User: Fold Nucleoside diphosphate kinase from Coemansia umbellata.
Amino acid sequence: HIHTLNQSAGALEATLALLKPDILANPAFVDSIINDIQNSGMKIALRKQVFWTQGQAEQFYAEHRRRFFFDRLVKYMTSGPVEAIALSGPNVISWWRQKMGATRPAQMRMTNPTCLRARYGLTDTRNSFHGSDSVESAKRELVFVFGQPAYKQIIL
Ligand code: UDP
Assistant:
């Protein structure tokens, strides 16, 4: 029966959510966002605060290394600690991306004002949140942050 329920609700997935440095600087915001997630029915499988070196941030965002915003992005992501959260649940990858909204906070304030980036995001770079965009990137990013053994526990 549990199997049938999970199938109708969507595939069980895991994703990496990051609360970027500007949000971590405001503990009240963090508490409110964590509460929202916990009330949603999605599961926080693991949580860890990380403070990336320049090299780690460059590796995490390697696919963007030729983009105009890359240096700015790396500088932002190394400006303070980041809260890394492994989420699991049915269709959690798209669930979290919808909750965040799209990349640009100013655009979101016009089109999707209730999403997290509309409410908290500052600029196109300092947009406060990250979410994996596919099963493959979720795996790569979760292993990057939490390691392979922890990843295997999350997806069990
Ligand atoms: N970014 C930026 N300027 C842009 C686009 C993206 O600074 O014009 C930053 C922003 O912090 C974004 C990250 O680079 O979250 C990764 O970009 P991506 O296109 O993967 O957006 P996301 O999937 O995070 O919405």
